[in-house]
């Protein structure tokens, strides 16, 4: 039951070029900073990354974009990364943009074993291109397929040696559904405690989904958009 590994380098062992990764977080909140940095220190390439966003220049998934390690991004919001924009416009990066709620549900469905579902979001836009449409209660819906990944990499506030996780506020938005949808899920946590020390009623992701866990270090927790009043 002990799933603890020493560090991010040990945690990402087995990730290979060309694989699909789910990367948790919401904006720059709750992203697995240690694992992302560890990937930049490898020669991995041609990765497909499923993430709420593409990070920013010099941080988050922006670091992988700088090293040309990502072949395809599947995201819902990508507006804060100049390198992402450059690669997209130059045809160096394949991009699939998905409405945010649809992206979250596709990840959740993947973790729940639901192969596909219908959703109204995106009908009548470019998102609908090539997709099956059915009417429900007089409203058109698009057929969307579940998402899974070879590896899911998530970040939690607290975790125990059995892999049970607790997220803090906004960080839980995409981390939990992605944690359930990876064939192998890696969790880095700010605080790692022995099994049995977490309140069972507070656990967001049960340890059954987690294969590897470690305590991260040197978190920056950057602010994506600083707004002052």
UniProtKB/TrEMBL annotation:
- UniProt xrefs under Gene3D superfamilies: Glutaconate Coenzyme A-transferase
Q: Does the keyword Transferase apply?
A: yes
The molecular function terms in GO held by this entry are:
CoA-transferase activity
Q: Which UniProt keywords apply?
A: Transferase
Note the coiled coil stretches, chain numbering. none
- Annotated protein name in UniProt: 3-oxoacid CoA-transferase subunit A
TM region(s), chain numbering: none
**Xref: NCBIfam families:** pcaI_scoA_fam (TIGR02429)
Q: Name one Pfam family in it.
A: CoA_trans
The answer to whether keyword Transport applies is no
């Amino acid at each position: 039951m002990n799933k603890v590994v020493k560090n991010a380098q040990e945690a990402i062992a087995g990730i290979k070029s060309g694989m699909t990764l789910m990367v948790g977080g919401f904006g720059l909140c709750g992203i697995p900073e240690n694992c992302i940095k560890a990937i930049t220190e490898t020669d991995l390439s041609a990765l497909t990354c499923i993430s709420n966003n593409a990070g920013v220049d010099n941080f988050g998934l922006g670091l992988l974009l700088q090293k040309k390690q990502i072949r395809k991004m599947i995201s819902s919001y990508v507006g804060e990364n100049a390198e992402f924009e450059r690669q997209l416009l130059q045809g160096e990066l394949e991009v699939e943009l998905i409405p945010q709620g649809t992206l979250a549900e596709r990840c959740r469905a993947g973790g729940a074993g639901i192969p596909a579902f219908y959703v109204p979001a995106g009908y009548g836009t470019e998102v609908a291109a090539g997709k099956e449409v059915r009417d429900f209660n007089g409203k058109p819906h698009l057929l969307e397929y579940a998402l899974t990944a070879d590896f899911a990499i998530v970040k939690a506030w607290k975790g125990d040696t059995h892999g049970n996780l607790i997220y803090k506020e906004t960080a839980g938005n995409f981390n939990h559904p992605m944690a359930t949808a990876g064939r192998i899920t890696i969790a880095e946590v700010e605080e790692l405690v022995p099994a049995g020390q977490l309140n069972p009623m507070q656990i967001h992701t049960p340890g059954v989904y987690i294969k590897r866990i470690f305590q991260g270090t040197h978190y920056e927790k950057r602010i994506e958009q600083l707004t002052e009043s």
